Protein backbone atom coordinates (compact mmCIF):
# COMPACT_ATOMS: atom_id res chain seq x y z
CA UNK A 1 0.00 0.00 0.00
CA UNK A 2 1.25 3.52 -0.75
CA UNK A 3 2.23 5.49 2.34
CA UNK A 4 2.97 9.07 3.25
CA UNK A 5 6.67 9.63 3.75
CA UNK A 6 9.28 12.38 4.04
CA UNK A 7 8.39 16.07 3.85
CA UNK A 8 4.77 15.49 2.94
CA UNK A 9 4.27 13.40 6.06
CA UNK A 10 5.94 16.11 8.18
CA UNK A 11 3.85 18.92 6.66
CA UNK A 12 0.65 16.97 7.26
CA UNK A 13 1.65 16.33 10.86
CA UNK A 14 2.06 20.10 11.28
CA UNK A 15 -1.32 20.60 9.61
CA UNK A 16 -2.91 18.22 12.12
CA UNK A 17 -1.81 20.48 14.96
CA UNK A 18 -3.93 23.31 13.56
CA UNK A 19 -7.02 21.69 12.14
CA UNK A 20 -10.13 21.25 14.20
CA UNK A 21 -12.11 19.33 11.56
CA UNK A 22 -11.71 15.59 11.78
CA UNK A 23 -10.81 13.74 8.59
CA UNK A 24 -12.25 10.31 7.87
CA UNK A 25 -12.43 8.22 4.72
CA UNK A 26 -15.11 6.62 2.59
CA UNK A 27 -14.16 2.96 2.20
CA UNK A 28 -15.97 -0.33 1.88
CA UNK A 29 -13.22 -2.93 1.93
CA UNK A 30 -10.32 -3.63 4.31
CA UNK A 31 -7.67 -2.67 1.75
CA UNK A 32 -9.11 0.82 1.21
CA UNK A 33 -9.61 1.13 4.95
CA UNK A 34 -5.93 0.36 5.59
CA UNK A 35 -4.88 2.69 2.80
CA UNK A 36 -6.93 5.51 4.37
CA UNK A 37 -5.51 4.79 7.78
CA UNK A 38 -2.01 5.08 6.36
CA UNK A 39 -2.98 8.46 4.88
CA UNK A 40 -4.09 9.64 8.32
CA UNK A 41 -7.85 9.00 8.25
CA UNK A 42 -9.26 9.04 11.76
CA UNK A 43 -12.04 6.60 10.95
CA UNK A 44 -14.39 5.53 8.20
CA UNK A 45 -17.10 8.13 7.69
CA UNK A 46 -18.97 6.07 5.11
CA UNK A 47 -18.88 2.38 4.36
CA UNK A 48 -21.30 1.95 1.44
CA UNK A 49 -22.55 -1.59 2.00
CA UNK A 50 -24.24 -1.81 -1.40
CA UNK A 51 -20.70 -1.97 -2.81
CA UNK A 52 -20.35 -5.27 -0.91
CA UNK A 53 -23.29 -6.69 -2.84
CA UNK A 54 -21.77 -6.85 -6.27
CA UNK A 55 -20.83 -9.95 -8.30
CA UNK A 56 -22.63 -13.12 -7.18
CA UNK A 57 -24.33 -11.35 -4.34
CA UNK A 58 -26.16 -9.09 -6.78
CA UNK A 59 -28.00 -12.20 -7.93
CA UNK A 60 -28.98 -12.97 -4.34
CA UNK A 61 -30.53 -9.51 -3.98
CA UNK A 62 -32.47 -10.00 -7.20
CA UNK A 63 -33.70 -13.38 -5.98
CA UNK A 64 -34.78 -11.77 -2.73
CA UNK A 65 -36.62 -8.87 -4.34
CA UNK A 66 -38.39 -10.90 -7.02
CA UNK A 67 -39.54 -13.84 -4.87
CA UNK A 68 -42.59 -13.86 -2.65
CA UNK A 69 -41.69 -17.29 -1.28
CA UNK A 70 -40.63 -16.81 2.36
CA UNK A 71 -38.29 -19.81 2.32
CA UNK A 72 -36.39 -18.61 -0.73
CA UNK A 73 -36.12 -15.16 0.82
CA UNK A 74 -34.86 -16.50 4.12
CA UNK A 75 -32.23 -18.60 2.33
CA UNK A 76 -31.05 -15.54 0.36
CA UNK A 77 -30.78 -13.51 3.56
CA UNK A 78 -28.94 -16.30 5.39
CA UNK A 79 -26.38 -16.41 2.55
CA UNK A 80 -25.95 -12.66 2.71
CA UNK A 81 -25.58 -12.73 6.49
CA UNK A 82 -22.67 -15.19 6.36
CA UNK A 83 -20.91 -13.04 3.77
CA UNK A 84 -21.54 -9.81 5.67
CA UNK A 85 -20.11 -11.02 8.98
CA UNK A 86 -16.81 -11.59 7.15
CA UNK A 87 -17.03 -8.21 5.39
CA UNK A 88 -17.53 -6.29 8.62
CA UNK A 89 -14.99 -8.32 10.55
CA UNK A 90 -12.36 -7.29 7.99
CA UNK A 91 -13.36 -3.63 8.02
CA UNK A 92 -13.47 -3.27 11.81
CA UNK A 93 -10.18 -5.09 12.24
CA UNK A 94 -8.45 -2.87 9.69
CA UNK A 95 -9.74 0.20 11.58
CA UNK A 96 -9.19 -1.25 15.07
CA UNK A 97 -9.84 1.43 17.69
CA UNK A 98 -11.29 3.93 15.17
CA UNK A 99 -14.95 4.57 14.27
CA UNK A 100 -16.42 2.85 11.22
CA UNK A 101 -19.78 4.18 10.07
CA UNK A 102 -21.57 1.39 8.26
CA UNK A 103 -24.41 2.58 6.12
CA UNK A 104 -27.28 0.16 5.69
CA UNK A 105 -28.00 -0.92 2.14
CA UNK A 106 -28.77 1.99 -0.20
CA UNK A 107 -29.16 0.51 -3.68
CA UNK A 108 -31.27 2.09 -6.33
CA UNK A 109 -33.00 -1.09 -7.47
CA UNK A 110 -32.08 -0.66 -11.14
CA UNK A 111 -28.47 -1.35 -10.13
CA UNK A 112 -29.41 -4.74 -8.66
CA UNK A 113 -32.00 -6.09 -11.03
CA UNK A 114 -31.02 -7.29 -14.49
CA UNK A 115 -31.59 -4.66 -17.14
CA UNK A 116 -34.98 -5.22 -18.87
CA UNK A 117 -33.48 -4.07 -22.17
CA UNK A 118 -30.62 -6.54 -21.99
CA UNK A 119 -32.98 -9.31 -20.95
CA UNK A 120 -35.20 -8.50 -23.89
CA UNK A 121 -32.25 -8.67 -26.29
CA UNK A 122 -31.18 -11.92 -24.62
CA UNK A 123 -34.62 -13.44 -25.18
CA UNK A 124 -34.57 -12.41 -28.85
CA UNK A 125 -31.18 -14.08 -29.25
CA UNK A 126 -32.44 -17.24 -27.55
CA UNK A 127 -35.37 -17.35 -29.93
CA UNK A 128 -33.15 -16.96 -32.96
CA UNK A 129 -30.77 -19.65 -31.73
CA UNK A 130 -33.67 -22.07 -31.26
CA UNK A 131 -33.38 -22.42 -27.46
CA UNK A 132 -35.97 -24.58 -25.72
CA UNK A 133 -39.43 -23.13 -25.06
CA UNK A 134 -38.97 -23.69 -21.30
CA UNK A 135 -35.80 -21.62 -21.12
CA UNK A 136 -37.41 -18.82 -23.10
CA UNK A 137 -40.55 -18.91 -20.93
CA UNK A 138 -38.43 -18.70 -17.78
CA UNK A 139 -36.61 -15.62 -19.09
CA UNK A 140 -39.90 -14.04 -20.10
CA UNK A 141 -41.32 -14.58 -16.62
CA UNK A 142 -38.19 -12.97 -15.14
CA UNK A 143 -38.52 -10.01 -17.48
CA UNK A 144 -42.16 -9.57 -16.51
CA UNK A 145 -41.29 -9.55 -12.81
CA UNK A 146 -38.45 -7.08 -13.29
CA UNK A 147 -40.72 -4.86 -15.40
CA UNK A 148 -43.13 -4.87 -12.49
CA UNK A 149 -40.44 -3.36 -10.29
CA UNK A 150 -39.08 -0.86 -12.82
CA UNK A 151 -39.34 2.74 -11.63
CA UNK A 152 -39.26 5.88 -13.77
CA UNK A 153 -36.80 7.49 -11.35
CA UNK A 154 -34.97 4.78 -9.39
CA UNK A 155 -32.84 7.39 -7.59
CA UNK A 156 -36.07 8.78 -6.16
CA UNK A 157 -37.68 5.44 -5.55
CA UNK A 158 -37.18 2.35 -3.44
CA UNK A 159 -33.72 3.06 -2.14
CA UNK A 160 -32.08 3.92 1.16
CA UNK A 161 -34.13 3.40 4.29
CA UNK A 162 -37.23 2.80 2.17
CA UNK A 163 -35.92 -0.64 1.25
CA UNK A 164 -35.38 -1.52 4.92
CA UNK A 165 -38.81 -0.23 5.89
CA UNK A 166 -40.45 -2.45 3.26
CA UNK A 167 -38.19 -5.46 3.97
CA UNK A 168 -37.07 -5.23 7.65
CA UNK A 169 -35.39 -8.62 7.29
CA UNK A 170 -32.60 -6.82 5.37
CA UNK A 171 -31.61 -4.29 8.08
CA UNK A 172 -31.96 -7.03 10.70
CA UNK A 173 -29.51 -9.17 8.71
CA UNK A 174 -27.01 -6.33 8.31
CA UNK A 175 -27.19 -5.13 11.91
CA UNK A 176 -26.85 -8.71 13.16
CA UNK A 177 -23.75 -9.11 11.00
CA UNK A 178 -22.28 -5.81 12.24
CA UNK A 179 -22.94 -6.67 15.89
CA UNK A 180 -21.66 -10.24 15.51
CA UNK A 181 -18.42 -9.12 13.83
CA UNK A 182 -18.01 -6.53 16.60
CA UNK A 183 -18.62 -9.12 19.34
CA UNK A 184 -16.12 -11.56 17.81
CA UNK A 185 -13.41 -8.94 17.58
CA UNK A 186 -14.04 -7.78 21.15
CA UNK A 187 -13.59 -11.37 22.34
CA UNK A 188 -10.31 -11.54 20.43
CA UNK A 189 -9.03 -8.43 22.24
CA UNK A 190 -9.61 -5.86 19.50
CA UNK A 191 -11.44 -2.54 19.96
CA UNK A 192 -13.96 -2.36 17.10
CA UNK A 193 -16.03 0.84 16.96
CA UNK A 194 -18.87 0.34 14.49
CA UNK A 195 -21.67 2.86 14.06
CA UNK A 196 -24.85 2.25 12.08
CA UNK A 197 -26.14 4.79 9.58
CA UNK A 198 -29.62 4.89 8.07
CA UNK A 199 -29.68 6.39 4.54
CA UNK A 200 -32.14 8.65 2.71
CA UNK A 201 -34.32 9.47 5.68
CA UNK A 202 -36.90 12.19 5.05
CA UNK A 203 -39.20 11.90 8.08
CA UNK A 204 -38.61 11.02 11.72
CA UNK A 205 -40.73 7.82 11.78
CA UNK A 206 -38.45 6.21 9.15
CA UNK A 207 -35.45 6.71 11.39
CA UNK A 208 -37.33 5.84 14.57
CA UNK A 209 -38.53 2.56 13.10
CA UNK A 210 -35.14 1.46 11.81
CA UNK A 211 -33.36 2.63 14.94
CA UNK A 212 -35.75 0.43 16.91
CA UNK A 213 -34.97 -2.52 14.65
CA UNK A 214 -31.23 -1.87 15.02
CA UNK A 215 -31.31 -1.53 18.80
CA UNK A 216 -33.38 -4.67 19.29
CA UNK A 217 -31.04 -6.64 17.03
CA UNK A 218 -27.90 -5.33 18.78
CA UNK A 219 -29.39 -6.30 22.16
CA UNK A 220 -30.14 -9.84 20.90
CA UNK A 221 -26.61 -10.33 19.62
CA UNK A 222 -25.08 -8.92 22.82
CA UNK A 223 -27.06 -11.41 24.85
CA UNK A 224 -26.32 -14.35 22.58
CA UNK A 225 -22.60 -13.57 22.46
CA UNK A 226 -22.36 -12.63 26.16
CA UNK A 227 -20.72 -9.25 25.50
CA UNK A 228 -21.58 -5.59 25.99
CA UNK A 229 -22.12 -3.77 22.73
CA UNK A 230 -22.27 -0.03 22.36
CA UNK A 231 -23.11 0.85 18.76
CA UNK A 232 -24.37 4.37 17.98
CA UNK A 233 -27.12 4.80 15.40
CA UNK A 234 -27.34 7.86 13.18
CA UNK A 235 -28.60 9.01 9.84
CA UNK A 236 -27.62 10.57 6.56
CA UNK A 237 -29.05 14.03 5.97
CA UNK A 238 -29.29 14.08 2.20
CA UNK A 239 -32.78 15.31 1.44
CA UNK A 240 -33.89 18.93 1.92
CA UNK A 241 -36.82 17.81 4.05
CA UNK A 242 -34.47 16.11 6.47
CA UNK A 243 -32.24 19.20 6.69
CA UNK A 244 -35.10 21.57 7.46
CA UNK A 245 -36.63 19.25 10.06
CA UNK A 246 -33.31 18.19 11.53
CA UNK A 247 -34.43 19.17 15.05
CA UNK A 248 -37.04 16.40 14.92
CA UNK A 249 -34.78 13.86 13.24
CA UNK A 250 -31.95 14.49 15.70
CA UNK A 251 -34.10 13.24 18.57
CA UNK A 252 -33.49 9.70 17.26
CA UNK A 253 -29.93 10.21 15.96
CA UNK A 254 -26.55 9.93 17.65
CA UNK A 255 -24.94 11.47 14.59
CA UNK A 256 -25.71 13.13 11.26
CA UNK A 257 -23.70 12.64 8.11
CA UNK A 258 -24.58 15.08 5.35
CA UNK A 259 -24.80 13.33 2.01
CA UNK A 260 -24.10 16.31 -0.16
CA UNK A 261 -24.23 14.30 -3.40
CA UNK A 262 -27.90 13.55 -2.99
CA UNK A 263 -28.54 16.84 -1.22
CA UNK A 264 -27.16 18.71 -4.25
CA UNK A 265 -29.19 16.55 -6.62
CA UNK A 266 -32.44 17.02 -4.73
CA UNK A 267 -31.93 20.71 -3.98
CA UNK A 268 -31.21 21.66 -7.59
CA UNK A 269 -33.38 18.96 -9.14
CA UNK A 270 -30.47 17.95 -11.40
CA UNK A 271 -29.73 14.26 -11.75
CA UNK A 272 -26.30 13.44 -10.31
CA UNK A 273 -26.06 10.59 -12.83
CA UNK A 274 -26.15 13.08 -15.68
CA UNK A 275 -23.29 15.33 -14.54
CA UNK A 276 -21.08 13.53 -17.01
CA UNK A 277 -23.73 13.82 -19.72
CA UNK A 278 -24.49 16.53 -22.28
CA UNK A 279 -27.16 18.81 -20.91
CA UNK A 280 -26.55 19.17 -17.17
CA UNK A 281 -22.88 20.22 -17.20
CA UNK A 282 -23.32 22.49 -20.20
CA UNK A 283 -26.41 24.17 -18.81
CA UNK A 284 -24.82 24.61 -15.40
CA UNK A 285 -21.68 26.13 -16.87
CA UNK A 286 -23.38 28.37 -19.45
CA UNK A 287 -26.38 29.57 -17.52
CA UNK A 288 -26.15 28.92 -13.81
CA UNK A 289 -22.84 28.73 -12.00
CA UNK A 290 -19.12 29.28 -12.50
CA UNK A 291 -18.44 25.98 -10.68
CA UNK A 292 -19.78 22.44 -10.64
CA UNK A 293 -22.04 22.17 -7.57
CA UNK A 294 -21.51 18.39 -7.49
CA UNK A 295 -17.78 18.99 -6.90
CA UNK A 296 -17.71 22.24 -4.89
CA UNK A 297 -20.44 22.85 -2.35
CA UNK A 298 -22.99 25.39 -3.54
CA UNK A 299 -23.91 28.17 -1.07
CA UNK A 300 -27.59 27.20 -1.23
CA UNK A 301 -26.83 23.57 -0.41
CA UNK A 302 -24.34 24.71 2.25
CA UNK A 303 -27.13 26.72 3.83
CA UNK A 304 -29.16 23.53 4.18
CA UNK A 305 -26.15 21.84 5.82
CA UNK A 306 -25.75 24.77 8.19
CA UNK A 307 -29.44 24.70 9.03
CA UNK A 308 -29.23 20.94 9.56
CA UNK A 309 -26.31 21.34 11.99
CA UNK A 310 -28.01 24.10 13.97
CA UNK A 311 -31.39 22.38 14.14
CA UNK A 312 -29.72 19.05 14.81
CA UNK A 313 -28.12 20.47 17.95
CA UNK A 314 -31.53 21.74 19.09
CA UNK A 315 -32.89 18.20 18.84
CA UNK A 316 -29.80 16.55 20.34
CA UNK A 317 -27.12 18.81 21.89
CA UNK A 318 -24.55 15.97 21.71
CA UNK A 319 -25.08 15.12 18.05
CA UNK A 320 -21.90 14.56 16.01
CA UNK A 321 -22.08 16.07 12.52
CA UNK A 322 -19.98 15.21 9.49
CA UNK A 323 -20.17 15.19 5.73
CA UNK A 324 -19.53 12.21 3.48
CA UNK A 325 -20.50 13.43 0.01
CA UNK A 326 -17.79 14.02 -2.63
CA UNK A 327 -17.48 17.59 -1.32
CA UNK A 328 -15.80 16.21 1.82
CA UNK A 329 -12.54 15.96 -0.14
CA UNK A 330 -12.77 19.30 -1.95
CA UNK A 331 -10.56 22.03 -0.40
CA UNK A 332 -12.93 24.92 -1.13
CA UNK A 333 -15.88 23.01 0.31
CA UNK A 334 -13.79 22.06 3.35
CA UNK A 335 -13.42 25.78 4.14
CA UNK A 336 -17.21 26.06 4.10
CA UNK A 337 -17.66 22.99 6.31
CA UNK A 338 -15.10 24.36 8.77
CA UNK A 339 -17.01 27.65 8.98
CA UNK A 340 -20.31 25.82 9.48
CA UNK A 341 -18.76 23.93 12.41
CA UNK A 342 -18.98 20.32 11.26
CA UNK A 343 -17.04 17.82 13.34
CA UNK A 344 -15.44 15.98 10.43
CA UNK A 345 -15.29 15.49 6.69
CA UNK A 346 -15.11 12.06 5.07
CA UNK A 347 -13.67 11.58 1.61
CA UNK A 348 -12.16 8.98 -0.71
CA UNK A 349 -8.86 7.53 0.58
CA UNK A 350 -6.57 9.38 -1.83
CA UNK A 351 -8.13 12.71 -0.85
CA UNK A 352 -7.40 12.28 2.85
CA UNK A 353 -4.00 14.09 2.75
CA UNK A 354 -5.46 17.04 0.83
CA UNK A 355 -8.38 17.19 3.26
CA UNK A 356 -5.99 17.30 6.24
CA UNK A 357 -4.13 20.20 4.67
CA UNK A 358 -7.28 22.10 3.61
CA UNK A 359 -8.78 21.65 7.08
CA UNK A 360 -5.67 23.20 8.64
CA UNK A 361 -5.67 26.09 6.16
CA UNK A 362 -9.35 26.71 6.89
CA UNK A 363 -8.73 26.68 10.63
CA UNK A 364 -5.88 29.18 10.31
CA UNK A 365 -7.74 31.52 7.92
CA UNK A 366 -10.92 31.47 9.95
CA UNK A 367 -9.27 32.05 13.33
C1 LIG B 1 -24.35 11.34 -0.73
O1 LIG B 1 -25.49 11.27 -1.20
O2 LIG B 1 -23.71 12.40 -0.63
C2 LIG B 1 -23.69 10.13 -0.23
C3 LIG B 1 -22.53 10.19 0.39
O3 LIG B 1 -24.28 8.92 -0.50
P1 LIG B 1 -24.17 8.23 -1.94
O4 LIG B 1 -23.18 9.01 -2.74
O5 LIG B 1 -23.74 6.85 -1.71
O6 LIG B 1 -25.57 8.36 -2.44
MG1 LIG C 1 -26.66 9.45 -0.90
Automatic annotation (TrEMBL):
Domain PEP-utilising enzyme C-terminal: 5-362
Residues bound to Mg(2+): 238, 262
Residues at the catalytic site: 324 (proton donor)
Residues annotated to bind substrate: 48, 103, 238, 259-262
Sequence similarity: Belongs to the PEP-utilizing enzyme family.
Name listed for the protein in its UniProt record: Pyruvate, phosphate dikinase
Parent sequence residues shown: 539 to 905 of 905
Amino acid sequence: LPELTGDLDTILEWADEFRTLGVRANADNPEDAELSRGFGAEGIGLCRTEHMFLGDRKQIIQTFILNDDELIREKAVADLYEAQVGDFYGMFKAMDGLPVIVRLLDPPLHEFLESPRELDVGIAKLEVSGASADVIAEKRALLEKIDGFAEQNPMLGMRGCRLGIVYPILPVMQVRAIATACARLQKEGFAPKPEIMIPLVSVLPELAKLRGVAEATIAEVAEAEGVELSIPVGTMIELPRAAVTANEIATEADFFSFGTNDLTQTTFGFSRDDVEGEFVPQYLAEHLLPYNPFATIDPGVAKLVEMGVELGHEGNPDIVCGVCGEHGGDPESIHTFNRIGLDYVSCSPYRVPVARLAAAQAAIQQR
